[in-house]
Amino acid sequence: MPELPEVETVKRTLEELVVGKTIQSVDIGWPNIIKRPADPTEFTTEVKGQTIHSMRRRGKFLLFDLDDIVMVSHLRMEGRYGVYKQEDAPVPHTHVTFGFSDGTELRYQDVRKFGTMHLFEKGKEEETMPLTQLGVEPFDEEFTVELLTNASQKTTRKIKPFLLDQKTVVGLGNIYVDEALFRARIHPERLAHSLTDEEFQKLHHSIVETLSEAVQLGGSSIKSYVNGQGEMGMFQQTLEVYGRKNEPCKHCEDTIIRIVVGGRGTHYCPTCQTN
Ligand SMILES: [Zn+2]
Question: Is residue 86 a contact partner of residue 93, using CB atoms and an 8 Å limit?
């Protein structure tokens, strides 16, 4: 599933291709992707004639700012956007196509069909699901060691599920939680409230550092991920633990272990992350 670095990279690469373009037609092949309004015909009516003025990211969501509405989209497992010419060959698993007035098209492809699109009146997008209840952005000043520490004192959860739930800090998924916990030398099954002040500082630092390095490298191409211009990310080459079950730790040469924490496959080094 794309996490913050991948969604940020999609946003940056896609905005170069779609900002300034006016939507002339919408073709919906799989209506379940359209979550709001409930009627896909109404979705088409609202979007037609609108121009894409900018794109934003909030957590793992992509936002398209149109004239007076905002489209909020989540790629879920394998969703991807690509820009094509109208005459280009059909792309398999394309479920929604936005035709632009300049003869190009924004095509949404999704093998698993789990992705979503919601429309909101401009300025109201954070008042209704799915953007309500989201925590702070990890690159914002609001994300502090204190915020992380205070939120963890109110939970009995383990540190990994606590970081995954998006309610304190957004953008982390399975890959970057495992990587950030490794960098901070924290075992993924530690209870969140049991971390020491020093560990919270290290964890805060490693979350910001891991995510920003991954953004710089265009995200991690694991499974099918490519950016908005069809290019792969490079961060997967620097992964320390994620996806490295039975491989030697790059720091101590002990064997990386995979366990299940909160229902999610979790990778860690038993020597570097002892407690
Ligand atoms: Zn190690």
Answer: no
